[in-house]
Design brief:
The chain is mostly helical. It has one domain. Helix content is about 80%, strand content about 0%. α2 runs antiparallel to α3 and α3 runs antiparallel to α4.
Length: about 110
């Protein structure tokens, strides 16, 4: 029996709670509530990717200045920032692709 496909948002612990609260907000409001929910989830995702990048930059700067930062921690922080950016970029590409497909549908 194949494993069920889970949404990407469920695998991201920080975004799962945001999406759940945004979904409840969007269900009570009209179309503006849903757009606001998407906007808040998107802004939160951008903020998390940016914080990973800032963390990696700070770790690199501490290592280069000789403040006792270990090399493997620097490499892990850089990889985490890169992977979070790549995931964000792929999700963005899928959203843009889905939007383009919807816009090409004939009514």
């Amino acid at each position: 029996m194949p494993a069920p496909i889970l949404p990407v948002i469920a695998s991201l612990p920080g975004l799962a709670s945001t999406a759940a609260s945004s979904a409840s907000i969007g269900s009570t409001g009209g179309s503006t509530g849903t757009g606001g929910a998407f906007g808040s989830v998107f802004a939160d995702a951008v903020q998390k990717v940016e914080s990973f990048q800032k963390n990696a930059d700070a770790s690199i700067n501490r290592f280069l200045s000789g403040e006792g930062e270990e090399l493997h921690k620097v490499a892990l922080a850089a990889q985490q920032a890169d992977l979070s950016f790549q995931l964000f970029l792929q999700v963005r590409n899928k959203v843009v692709s889905a939007y383009q497909q919807v816009m090409q549908m004939q009514i």
